[in-house]
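User: I'm preparing a small set of examples for a lab meeting where we compare how different chains pack in three dimensions. I only have the primary sequence for this one, and I'd like the structure in token form so I can line it up with the others. Please keep the answer compact; I'll paste it straight into my notes.
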Amino acid sequence: MFISIDHLTKDFRGRPAVLDNLTVDLPQGMIGLIGPNGAGKTTLMRILTGIIKPSKGKILIDGQDLSTPVNRRILKRNLGYLPQNITPYDNLSPLEFLDYIGILKMIDDKRVRQQQAHTLLEQVGLEDVMSQHIGGFSGGMRRRVGIAQALMGDPRLLVVDEPTAGLDPEERMRFRTLLAQLGQNRTVILSTHILDDVAQTCPWVCVLRSGRRQYDGPTQGLIHEADGHTWITPPIAAPPDAATIINAEPTPNGTRYRIVTDTPPAGSVETAPNLEDGYMALAREH
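Assistant: Understood. Below is the structure token output for the 286-residue chain.
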């Protein structure tokens, strides 16, 4: 599923444009959508999923204009959406909740719905609790119900907003593996502040800032933004001026900093950049 976003603008009354003449093409596969708070990521996802309409511009999905009611209905049948704050009904079990979602997605055959629900709950590791009420679930278990409901109907487009937020390390790794598998035969848009999740799963990345495209292309290309600018300082007493600090490691003789800068302190050693370095190098440029 190929997505083409053409001069997309979204205004809310009394506020600057949340999306400002955004034009970008998103290929099939795993796509990381990153940027600071207020960049327009959630608004873009809500437009992609048909929840709100843009003020100007259009979105084409496989060449079909999303602005027409017929095409929006077709998209919703092929769409899975996991919002950041999913609130499945506490008085339902995961099986009952997924069956309900299947009805909304017009899966009319109850046996097909039940089979899909069982398979998906096993896939996300909830097979032992699929008949218990969701009200007693932890936050991580609720997220797993959320990803399962998003996959009902085997959607060709999957939009997930901060899917690993609040999860423990083991659950995060489980989700990353699952999302990477899903991205092999569909389009998955992953919005997250955890850049390591993008680095581990997404070969393509789109960076938004102030509602505009700052970068879109291969993830490796964003990493290369920090080539020749990423350094490890020797232990020093204070952070260096005019440098973006990526992390700090206390030592008995001072603090060793990982920085992005053009003017490293004496004794610094250049190091290979990662996605965090590339993202911050791009932010420095703008």
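A couple of notes for your slides: The chain has two domains: 3-218, 227-285. The chain is about 30% helix and 25% strand.

User: Perfect, thanks.
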